[in-house]
Amino acid sequence: MSPAGRVLVRVDDRLVHGQVIFDWLRYLDPVCVMVVHESLDDGQRALVRSALAERYQLWIGNARDAAEYLWQRSDENAVLVLLPSLEELQLLLSAGYNPEVVMLGALGWRTGRQRVSAQVYLSPSEKEVLRSLTACGLNIIIQARYHDLPLVWRPDSAG
Amino acid sequence: MAPRFRWVAAWLALLGGVSLAAPGLLSHAADATPTRPISLLAAFLIGLCYYLSQSAWVAGIGFFTLYRPLVGGTLVGLILGAPLEGAQIGATINLAYLGFVAAGGSLPSDISLAGYLGTALALGGGLDAEAALALTVPVGILGYLIYQLRMSLDVVFVRWAEYLASQGNTKAWVWCNVLAPQALLVLISLLPCAAAVYWGPAWLSQNLAQIPSWLLKGLSGAGAVLPIVGLAYSLTLLWHGRNGAWFILGFLVAALTDWPLLALALAAACIAWLVQPTAQTAAPETDANAPYLPRKLKRRDLAVSWLNWLFFSHASYNYERMQGLGFAHSMIPIINRLYPNQRERAEALNRHITYFNSEPNLGAFVIGTVAAMEEKQACEAEPNYNTVNAIKIGLMGAISGIGDSLIQGTWIPLALMLGIGLTRQVGLLGPVIYTLMVAISIWGVGALSYMAGYRGSRSLIQRRIASGAWQQWLASLELVGSVMLGVLLARAVPLNLLVTLNLGSQVVPLQGILDALVPQALVLGMCLLCLWVLKHRIKPTWVVLGISVVGFIAGFTGVI
Q: CA-CA distance, B223 to B226, in Å (whole number)?
């Protein structure tokens, strides 16, 4: 059994920004946007709320509550789940939510990270996390915008 | 083969396949439009305009002005001695790219090359505007290669910047962030564009007589319907709440009356003013809780910092740090003022060459905020810079979302609609008014955002944004945009059916029957059909290809 409706899980360190607003909200047309990020302060929460049009419900919280929310919902409406990092993704999965596919949208350069695609940079430890997740059957795709063809992340090809 | 280039191949194969499949239809073009020879100097100047459209020298407005086919087409027309024709062709091409949005360093197509080369092909090669537009689709996709090449090669300058940062060298920053990357951009943009403009139209004009007329008619048909996809794509962003009704109302008023476009735009603005709820009371001008800060920065430092950002935020745009080097460049006047010794300068530069990517105009708020934070920390006995990077990362995404929605998603398309409509109606005033609208708004938003970030403290601006006032501005702009999309569809996309019906002794044109119901009903129907398809998660590329095939067949069979 899986949660109802279409759910897009996207890892993106900028959370709600142009690519999300112009592409993923436009094509997924979700009722609710979930931002799984426990440490957002009030000001950042207000900014995220403002970046989204008022017609979208916004849910902000931790991974455990997000997993519970996703399992309990019964409607068929689409949901967009945004996570700022692979750590949050791991927490979401370990809380019991198991999507079939996770999209890596944008993970920008940081010290220790190496280029995987134009928009995604990963550190060796993050690649190791992805290896373990793909070994458990999770499909990882890299796709910044809707018009891009999704690249399937594979442990052997991604180094 | 890269996915985008499969589309180019598919496009060419489609045209070639149709050519081979219908040899019996071959006949030579008889009604080619007069051509203008393009000299080497003219080709160079057009290539220069193409380079400038993405360069660091146009005060932050190049991407919103020279990059758009409306303005690019006008410049090509000026260079070739036909400014009005150039503006009209540019307006036609721009209609198809009305919904163009660059987000997070990713473009769907290079609409600048499409505009410059498309207009040159029309004026220098003797194609009509619609046929030239059909050819710009693969041109735009090929142009994306230049963008990707630039974004990849510019990473080299990051290594240079790292070296300069380690030395605390702020004087040479202009070389690694601006001069060298711009020299590279000249090589990879100006030269290929100038070459294509010099040889492409010349080849076309020499061989136009050999091109079968049905192929040209087919291309014209495809080009005539492509703007409908562009408008429908823009509509997908606006199609919520009551905006659909405003769109259809705008269409009907424009189709049934001959009111001037500017009057319709003003009427739409008045409606938005009347129907939108009044914005909430503005937040106080100063933050009462903000601690007193001794000021070390001078007015000139802040002005130069903002100008550095305005001009050079994308000068060495690259996939690794995005605007990181531009961010550091904007911090240089601040660093030079606050940190007299080289070690502190090196540390500050290293803090600011990290990954940064935001909408550049509203994003100036982040630059102002960080300038204030640097100043505050520099005044502390034990400065703590750990929060600076966290603030940058925390702000850049959401500010980018707000800025992109407001500027790229709503304001620019709205200004373009007005510019394109005015170009159709009164000629060169269209691109001039569009450029002025964009320049004033972009500079105003940028300067106000920078100073709001510097003066207001982060909590104040967050309260201002969170007050919801900007959502009401956005809703008002969306209402006006919906009306103007309808107006533009009715006025700027003329599509006439040439089919006649034999009703006994009478021959009745089908277009006349449709016009008796609702003028331009066919265009409205096609636009709503495209909208429906796009809303059902069909990729725009498929819709463009599908509607082009329909237009091509309708064109060469003489239906339109």
A: 5
Band the pLDDT of B13: cuts 50, 70, 90.
low
B398 or B177: whose pLDDT is higher? B177
Judged by CB atoms closer than 8 Å, whether chains meet at A18 and B401 is answered as: yes
User: Domains, chain A, ranges and CATH?
Assistant: 7-158 (3.40.35.10)
Q: Nearest CB to A50: which of B102, B458, B466?
A: B466
Residue of B nearest to A106 (CA): B104
* Higher-pLDDT residue of B485, A158: B485
| Closest Cβ–Cβ partner in B148, B404, B539 for A22 | B404
> Is B243 in CB contact (< 8 Å) with chain A?
no
Q: How confident is the model at residue B466 (pLDDT cuts 50, 70, 90)?
A: low
pLDDT tens-place string over residues B527-550: 999 999 998 888 888 999 999 999
CA distances from B398 to A16, A63, B214 (A): 6, 21, 51
Mean pLDDT across the stretch B192-221?
Answer: 91
For residue B422, is pLDDT > 70? yes
Residue with more model confidence, B463 or B253: B253
> Coil, helix or strand for A115?
strand
Average pLDDT, chain B: 88
CB-based contact A46 B409, cutoff 8 Å = no
pLDDT value at B176 more than 50: yes
A-B C-beta contacts closer than 8 Å: 131
Handedness of CA B476, B481, B482, B483 (dihedral sign): positive
If you measure CA to CA, which chain B residue comes closest to A44?
Answer: B394
| Contact criterion met (CB below 8 Å) for B93 and B115 | yes
Conformation bin of residue B518: beta by default, left when phi > 0, alpha when psi is -120 to 50: beta
DSSP B322: B
On the question of pLDDT at B283 being above 60, the answer is: no
Residue A41 has pLDDT above 90, yes or no: no
Q: What is the ipTM of this complex?
A: 0.91
Rounded to the nearest 10 degrees, what angle do helices B469-492 and B83-96 cross at? Answer: 120
Chain B residue numbers touching A55 (CB-CB < 8 A):
240-241
Say what the pLDDT of residue B503 is: 77
| CB neighbour class for B481 (10 Å; exposed up to 12, middle 13-18, buried from 19) | buried
Chain B, nearest residue to A47 by Cα:
B398
Element housing A42 (H / E) = helix A42-51
Q: Which pair of structure tokens corresponds to residue B30?
A: 């008889």
- B108 CB within 8 Å of a chain A CB: yes
Looking at chain B, how many residues does it have? 560
Q: Indicate if the pLDDT at residue B287 is higher than 80.
A: no
The tokens of B558 are what? 């003489």
Share of chain B above pLDDT 70, in %: 88
- Contact at CB, B409 and A22, closer than 8 angstroms: yes
In the block, tokens 């999704």 appear at A150
pLDDT, one tens digit per residue, over A91-115 is 999 999 989 999 999 999 999 999 9
**For residue B479, is it left (φ>0), alpha (ψ between -120 and 50) or beta?**
alpha
**Residue indicated by tokens 């599908």:** B546
**Closest approach of chain B CAs to the CA of A39, in angstroms?**
11
**What is the distance in angstroms between the Cα of A117 and the nearest Cα belonging to chain B?**
9
Least confident stretch, A21-25, A92-96, B507-511: B507-511
Contacts by residues B12-20 (CB-CB < 8 Å, ≥ 24 positions apart)? B12/B138, B14/B545, B14/B548, B14/B549, B14/B552, B15/B215, B15/B219, B18/B215, B18/B218, B18/B552, B18/B556, B19/B212, B19/B215
Does the CB of A13 have a partner CB in chain B at under 8 Å? yes
Give the helix/strand (H/E) hosting A131.
Answer: helix A124-135
Do B151 and A118 make contact, defined as CB atoms within 8 angstroms? yes
- Closest of B68, B54, B64 to residue B147, by C-alpha: B54
